Structures are given as structure tokens and as C-alpha cells.
Amino acid sequence: MYDRILLPSDAGDAGGRAVDQAVGLARETGAELHLLFVVEEVPHAPEMIEQSVEKQLRSVGESVLAGIRDRAEGAGLSVETTVREGVPHVAIVDYADEVGADVIVMGTHGRSGLNRYLLGSVTERVVRTADVPVLTVRIAGGDGKGAGEGESSEGDAGDDEPAT
Fold it and tell me: What Rg, from alpha-carbon coordinates, does the chain have?
């Protein structure tokens, strides 16, 4: 069903539900798991500060992906990790196209109202622009709903079993 699964991650859900879903789905389907961390460009900063911040963020990204990679490889999966710089939703969709991902698995904070309007949603933008299905998994926090509730453009990921 799936040959390549893309899991873009940030430090917020490095060990959480989206990782559980992606690892479980890859294990069930025998898919290769692609892990992506996007370092967002620092706007309007002097070049020296921008380079320093981006270097630190790249280091955080590499650390986050290493933890997920170790977990996925421990489950017997084939894993590729990549850190990219750019606008997160654009970099995610471009990378999915580049590697031929069959599905993208992403965490979402479940923000609503003014918070969603002001902060935007990388996941929502990926859902709107990706050419492949996007499985969204609500992570703890957001609008007061617990981690036990999920949402998906492909199916409900609210339980602990991977959606197929």
C-alpha cells in the first residue's frame, strides 16, 4: 500500500503520537520511513545572527531526527533522515515530491480561532498543497482537547493503532 512514508517533525512531537502512527504504519506496510526537519529561515536578522540561529536549529533538528531514527530502526524499519532550510510547508511538500512519498504523517496542535489565524498551521498548508494523502495526528495541547483525540484527512488516527 505504501512504499515511502514522510514524517516531518519538529521538537514539539519528537516522541509522540505522530511518530507512533508513522512507525506503526511503516511497520505494517513495510514502507521506508523518511524523516524531515525543516529549519525555518530567520527573517530580518543580521547575517551573523541568522547563521548562528540557523546553525543551532539545524543541530536541534539533527538531534530530534536521531532520536526518532533510533526508535524506528529499533522497530526494524529502513529510515532516511534529512534536515532542510526553508519555508516549512513548502519544504515538506517539495521533499515529499522529491522522494516519491506515498503519504505524509504530521502532528497538529489543534489550534483554533485567533491562535490559528495568527500562528497559521503548517499542517493545514501541507494538507492543502500536497499531492499525496496527509494523515494528521492531534498531539497534546492546542485548544484544550487531550492527546486521545485525532483528526485526519485520510481517516481517524485517534486510537493508538496505525490508521490504514
Answer: 15
Whether residue 37 is contained in a domain is answered as: yes
pLDDT grade for 29, boundaries at 50, 70 and 90? very high
Which domain CATH number covers 112? Answer: 3.40.50.620
pTM: 0.80
State the pLDDT confidence band at 138, using cuts at 50, 70 and 90: confident
Range of the domain at 26: 4-138
Single out the residue of 105, 134, 116, 102 nearest to residue 36, CA to CA.
105
Q: What's the structural domain count of the chain? A: 1
